[in-house]
Amino acid sequence: MSAGGLVIRIVEGGPEIVLGRRVRPHEGSAWVLPKGTPAEGEAVETTALREVAEETGLAVHIVEPVGSIHYSFVQSGARVDKTVHFYLMVATGGDLANHDYEFEEVRWVPLEEAAHLLKFETEREIVERARPAIDALRERGAA
Questions:
Q1: How many domains does the chain have?
Q2: pTM of the shown model
Q3: Has residue 143 got a pLDDT over 70?
Q4: What pLDDT band is residue 53 in, cutting at 50, 70 and 90?
Q5: Contacts with 52 (C-beta within 8 Å, 6 or more apart), sequence order
Q6: Domain that holds residue 93
Q7: Higher pLDDT, 138 or 45
Q8: How does pLDDT run across 123-134, given as a tens digit for each residue?
Q9: The domain that contains 17 carries what CATH number?
Q10: End-to-end Cα distance, the chain
Q11: DSSP letter, residue 26
Q12: Spatial separation of the C-alpha atoms in residues 104 and 21, rounded to whole Å
């Protein structure tokens, strides 16, 4: 299990979200949403807040859950089934320049561009599921 977030801000041109770019030898470069695994005994929401803060350099606040994705991969010859819980978040402080080593680059991306940049279909689907909540934030001017 992992947890992460869609960090949103509303700017004059429309909503933007934070994406991170990872480079891995067997996968190449990939733009992804920030996420990570829990520390022992850590609540899912706490994991999401901590991992997003570490990976992006931003202090964040959870607005609401967005949903989960499920996928499988092979690690050390064993099949791993994974669930990642995502939350819609807003930044309350911090700086993208303070992101950790897990990303080569972290940046704000227009929401419409994110669908073209995100490597994984499951993450693109999470962004689409979040659109009604993002629209509600935009209408309230809350992000």
A1: 1
A2: 0.92
A3: no
A4: very high
A5: 4, 5, 7, 34, 35, 58, 60, 89
A6: 2-140
A7: 45
A8: 999 999 999 999
A9: 3.90.79.10
A10: 28
A11: T
A12: 6
